[in-house]
Amino acid sequence: MSYRGCTVITYFVILILLLLSFALNKNSRYPIAAPSRFTGYPTWHEELDNFDQQSYDTSLLFLIITSILSGYYSLIWASNRDLPKKYVTYIYQENGSRIPATWFNKAIAYYIVFTSVAGIALFYLDTGKLWSTFGILHNIWEVCILLLLHQGGKITSSFFFAFIAIYVIMVTLLDIVLPWPLDAIWFKAQGLCADCALFIVFVRIYLATREYVKEQSSAQLPITNEDDLSPSDEEPSVSPKIIKHPNQILLLLFASFLHILGNGIPTISPTDGRLYIFFNLTYCLSFPAYALYIYFDTHCTSILHSKRILLPDTSKLKVFLITMWSILLSIMIMRLTFI
């Protein structure tokens, strides 16, 4: 059997064993869902221990304010059509094709904006079926970023929209028909899958780009017409801000990893009210970090000929491995809830 076949079988065996561990767990119980304070509908959590409503509301309002401001400025920075050429980042694929990172930055900006929408809904509705119609807006843009990067930084086919539509319909329908607590488990698990996939993809992009930049620096490639950074009459005469490319991508790793911590840790201990404040505070850091990445990407240049982001291999095997790792990590986090 080939290495690829052994890898696929191994991942499926691990996945099946993890799923079976839920069925064999004798300590699991169906908790009583606490009601939402404004709507009275059942939420996706029990009555919380060590919970201070005022502290929670303060942290949630801080989340909303920081995400609104971050989203507002991110959209302005990402939508700037008069960006000097020296500030433009290009996304490169292994086949040599390139495209400006404009759509990638816009996708991150919309990701921040719709996170603020989900935060506002969370304040009034609390987590639950009703809130999930807003919460999925946050997840949609995670999937959009993943698909956008898979297609080389731009929408290249109708598959993009078809996948998003199928994803939204599937998540929403299961959320509606599944009873408590399966609806909460389903929504949390699929959200963690997207979170983990985003982190894995950002790590791969950073490592591939860092290696590419090292090779480019050592080769001392001559400036070509497409990489010409000589200032034009339309560009400002002030000295540009210089960053050590690709270190700004580390902000994406930091933000996505912190986001996983914010979602994962309260999932493991769902009755500890203090962890819901921790959840809010991680969002207050991770999404401004995303906005800071967009600022650096649109306001700074590099000592290299141009800022280039290299997309790593997106073969079917790599996509499968990323998907399986994301699913496994998500299920492992969910499994810790029932220990």
From TrEMBL:
Keywords for this protein: Membrane, Transmembrane, Transmembrane helix
Transmembrane regions listed in the UniProt entry: 7-24, 60-78, 108-125, 131-149, 158-178, 184-207, 249-269, 275-296, 317-338
Superkingdom to which the source organism belongs: Eukaryota
Organism of provenance: Rhizophagus clarus
Protein name: Uncharacterized protein
